[in-house]
Amino acid sequence: MRPDTSAEYVDHNAEAARLERTAGLYPEDAEQLLVQAAAHLELAGDRPRASTLYDRLLASAEPLDHPHLVRALKAANLWEYGHEAEARAIIDGVRAAAPRDPAPWVIVAEALEAHDELEAAHETFTEAAELLLADGEEPPYAVRPVLFGRHRVRRMLGVAHDARDEQADALHTASVPLDELHDPTRVWSLGSDDPAELRAEISRLQAELGSYRQALSRPFPVAVLHWPADEFAELLAAYPSLAEEYPSHERHLATIEEALRELAASGTPNLGIVTGTVPSYEAFAASEASSPTDTALLPQYATTLASRGRAVAWPPEKGAACWCGSGNAYAGCHGS
């Protein structure tokens, strides 16, 4: 059950408890599961307990996959129940760390925006855009909320459009333009007695809701399966028949990049890569009552890993290391 499900259809406290129990059974997925549990607790109004889960993750002996995201979520939650000073300190820390993941930037900027810190929100969105976007490049799917949020805040501040705003306008596909969706005077029309104004506002809200539904329609990326060199060797040693699917590790890496580029060219958004391990794959095959030699299991395994929050967004962010694990920058490796 996703946290955005209406409280009419889900008991958020019960769902949070279920996710906490599941995290105990699958510690390798505890980060993703406990973040979801905290989201349910926030929706249930139990913000102090949600903060406890964020603290539990941050105090874990195991390194987190997305520590800045957890800190950003904690800060946004703390501010909502009166811990403004601590929230501001965490937000300053996230900004200073300059993460390459856009999600923490969006969360801290929206927290500032929600508390009428529009100048600080604008600075935060702008820092993120400058860090994550290269001039002349198509913005990755995950970075687009940075541009849309920056456009919204600038509209509320009443400043003129710049190149980034034009970029956001070009990426926005809903029937109602961003300038209308982000118009600060829209809320005034909700108090109008004019039926025509109310109908127009309902149309705008429907268009905005459609955009949100489109963004939520794929809760995890379309992911391609990657085997690191040591896992690749172990896989073929254990199951030689898979050599037909994987003739060499170099070809395997090249095929991943080719497949992702083809998906991107076809207009598929939200792409990612999941990294497989032989024990995990064998356990998945057993759960499906099938053999690891069945190549039809491979894409199913990739989808399962993605649904458990194991996907890394593709393409990597500007200046980030290549997904293949070579240690080289993506632009000079598989991105060249």
Keywords:
globular; mainly alpha; three-stranded mixed β-sheet; 4% strand
Question: Mean pLDDT, rounded to whole units?
Answer: 86
Q: Strand order within the widest sheet?
A: 1-2-3
Shape: globular
Flag low-confidence runs: 1-7
Distance from first to last alpha carbon: 40 Å
What is the share of helical residues? Answer: 55-70%
Q: What's the total count of β strands?
A: 3
Contiguous helical run count: 16
Q: What's the story with the biggest beta sheet? A: 3 strands, mixed
- Determine Rg (CA atoms, Å): 22 Å
What is the beta-strand fraction?
under 5%
State the assembly state of the protein chains: single chain
Structural class, by secondary structure, is: mainly alpha
Order of helices and strands: HHHHHHHHHHHHEHHEHHE
Describe the 3D structure.
This protein is mostly helical. 59% of the residues lie in helices and 4% in strands. It contains 16 helices and 3 strands. A 3-stranded mixed sheet has the order 1-2-3, with helices on both faces. The chain is globular. The two termini are 40 Å apart. The N terminus is likely disordered.
Short description:
This protein has helices spanning 12-25, 30-43, 47-58, 67-80, 84-97, 102-114, 118-132, 144-157, 163-171, 178-181, 186-189, 195-216, 229-238, 249-265, 278-287, 297-307; strands at 222-226, 271-275, 312-314. The chain has 336 residues and is mainly α.
Give the helices and strands, then pairings.
Blueprint: H1 12-25, H2 30-43, H3 47-58, H4 67-80, H5 84-97, H6 102-114, H7 118-132, H8 144-157, H9 163-171, H10 178-181, H11 186-189, H12 195-216, E1 222-226, H13 229-238, H14 249-265, E2 271-275, H15 278-287, H16 297-307, E3 312-314
Helix pairs in contact: 1-2, 2-3, 3-4, 4-5, 4-6, 6-7, 6-8, 7-8, 8-9
